[in-house]
Structures are given as structure tokens and as C-alpha cells.
Amino acid sequence: MGPIQTLDDIVDMLRRRAILIVVVTLLGGVVAVFYALSQPHVYTSYEVLQMARPKIADELARSTVQGSSARRLQLIQQRLMTRDSMLEIIETLSLYSDLALTPNEKVKLLRQSVNVDVVAAARSGYSDDGAVSVITISADMETPEQAQAVAQELSRRTIDLSMDTRIEQARETLEFFSAREDRLRAELSALEDDIVAFRNTHDVSLPGSVESRRSEIDAINQAVLDIDREVISIQREAEREIRMAREATAQRLRQDYDDQLGTLAAQRNLLVGRRDDLMASIETTPEIERRLNALLRQRDDVQRQLDVVVTRQAEADVGFRLESTNQAERLTVIEPAGLPDYPSGGSRKKVAVMGGAASVGLALFLAFLLELRNPVIRSAAQMQRETGLEPVVSIPTLKTKS
Known about the structure:
The chain is of the alpha+beta class. It contains ten helices and four strands, in the order ααβαααββαααβαα. The longest helix is centred in the last third of the chain and has 78 residues, at 247-324.
């Protein structure tokens, strides 16, 4: 410490530098008082929100809004702190109207003045499901009324955004499944029309058509065989009667038998043509059945999708009704923002006292620096401590009258 090593040295220094210490302390105190008086009061108001559980148990009616409440609130907070949202709050509450600030500066000042604190709900086991228990919204403003108004406005907007977000998500889910149901029903109707047209075109409207065709072919074969037998019988009878009849009678009989044989031949040709058509259709039946089975499988697949979508659409409708009637998870105010009684943070008196203490410290520091810049031996104790020599005589400073 140079020449300042003992308590006596400190007392001597204070005596010698008393004027400097007093002047610096007074000036610093005055500056601290003016600075404290120039500082505006800051009032803080708090509004507490609680994440209320659904009115109806999830096992009975489940909402379609999924995801953790912490993530949804984070998105809401980001939307709440956007520039447009901040400007709306400033304009609605007439904030900073007495300050010559640009809109961006006002937005920055308001963002610095508000805070949203989220408290997570108690964990169930060892996993964190992102559930939120309490949300505290605070606002620091120059007047108690403004602090209360800003906290209430932020709280109201948070609740409205949360509700609107949940309803919008539930509505989009319901609209998606409704549109999906309409598309599947139209697709199913078109497939059924295609199946009906395909069956009508290929004559496969009834199951077992192949077996029925084969049965018909057997019947036709039997009919053709009967016709052939009848033809043979008629021919033999005609030959016998014509041979025994006279010429005129034989011509008449021959004409009659020719007519009967022509009729039987026409019947036989008709049956043979029908049989050929049936046999041709049977030959193409495997390909037809394959195409028909493909259409049926496609219809069944669409039907299964439609059944799933109808179930999901019913669940989405229940979820939308829960959100619309405010019976699902929701934010509620459990502690409204009140008017603060006292300013928050450091008071003006505290700032002035701290400034005065700093002034005293600065004065002592300046006095000590001056002593270090002029390290003069001023007492016998200092002479003995610095040089090891004990002075014989110590002559004090004498002031003579001029």
C-alpha cells in the first residue's frame, strides 16, 4: 500500500484529503439524487392461467387435438409476440403515446416489458408428456393501470388463441375425414356401377353361371341327339311308306317328310348355334372371372377404407363438438391481474443511497490515488518503517504569520 499501511496513516490521509473527499461525495450524492428522481416508477401486474382438464373423460369422448400443451403454448406465445400483435395491443391500450418513439421501438419496449412463464405439470412416472399446469403472465409498466391492462390483454389473447387454435385443428380434422368419406363413397358407387355393367356385358350376373351353362350345353346335346334320332326315324318311315305307296301318294308323302326333316334341321341348327356360343363363353370365363374378381377386390378394399374413415369421421365430429362447446382441455383464469400497490424493483431512495455510497467510495479511491502519486514520508513511524532508522527529533510543520 505504499505510505498507507496502518490505521494512523489512513486517519492522516483522511485529514489531509478531507476537502477532496467532501467535494467528491457531495457532487456524487447530488448526481445520484437527480438520477434517482429521473428514474420512472415500474409497476408489475400478474395474471395466472391454469390448464383445466376436459369436462368429459377421454375414455368416453376424446378430442382430436393431439400434441403436448407445452408445444401448443409455445406456438401461441410466438404468435402473441409478433409485431402485428404487439402493435394492436399498443394501439388498443394507447401505450407510449407520450413518448416520441417509432412503431418498431414501441414494439421492442413492449416485448421487454412482458413475460410469459410456463410451469410444467407434475410428471406421471418417469416420462414427461409436455403437460402444462400454470401460466403466469406479467407486465411491467409505468402506471398500475397500464400494468393491469396489459396483463389482462395478454391473458385474454392467450386464451382466445388457444381456443381458436384447438377449434381450427379440430375443424380441419373433421373436414379432412368428411371429404375423404365423400371421395370414397363416390369411388365405391362407381366401382359398383362398373361391376354391374361388367356382369351384364358378360352374362355373369348370377353366381354359378358357368355351371348353369354347362348344364344347358348338356341339355342341348340331349335335344340334338333326340332330333337326330327323330330324323333317322322319320327317314326310315318315309322310305318304307314311299316304297309301298303309289306314285302320286309317294310324292305327297315325300313332301311331308321333307317338311318335317327341314323343321328338325332348323331346330338342330339353332340348338347347335346356341351350344357353340355357350362353349365359346365358357372358354373365356377364366379371364372374365379374373377381371371380375379384381373389381370385387377393389370394391372390398374401398369398402374397408370407407368403414375406417366413417369411424374416424365420427370421432372427429365428437372432438369438434367438444372443442366448440369448450368442454375439452382449456385455459382458465385462476388469479386475475390486480392493481399493484407499490413499484417493483429498486426504489428511488435505494438508488440514491447506493449512488451516495458509490460517491464515498470514489472519493476515498481518489484520495488514495493522490497519496500513491506523492509517496512522502510524513511521520517518524513511516521513517523507521521505510528506512529502518529511528529519528532523533520530529519537527512538526509550523505555520508562521507573514
